[in-house]
Amino acid sequence: MAEIIWSEPALADLDAIADYIALESPAAAAALVQRVFIHVEQLADHPNSGSRPKELGKSRYRQIIEPPCRVFYRVDGTRVVILHVMRTERLLRRSALNAPVKPAKR
Description:
Blueprint: E1 3-6, H1 8-22, H2 26-41, E2 61-66, E3 69-76, E4 79-87
Parallel strand pairs: 1-4
Antiparallel strand pairs: 2-3, 3-4
Helix pairs in contact: 1-2
């Protein structure tokens, strides 16, 4: 079983998306965050189940989709590191995945 590590930038990304959705519907924002966390937790048992982002070709990065979000991660041995969360309609900037990983405090 892999350990899930959320980076601070990834949690901030998800928080910003939820804040925007909450302007119209706090319940929908809360439901989205819950769905994302549930989907990410499945990576503990199946770390390589995410697809490879088309924009990155054959890279070490993977993604899972939980509409309207794309969650980017990489597998480092027995750890799954969540690096970036973005809305599906936005364009990925590779720099968002190259930031140093600083685990978020829970």
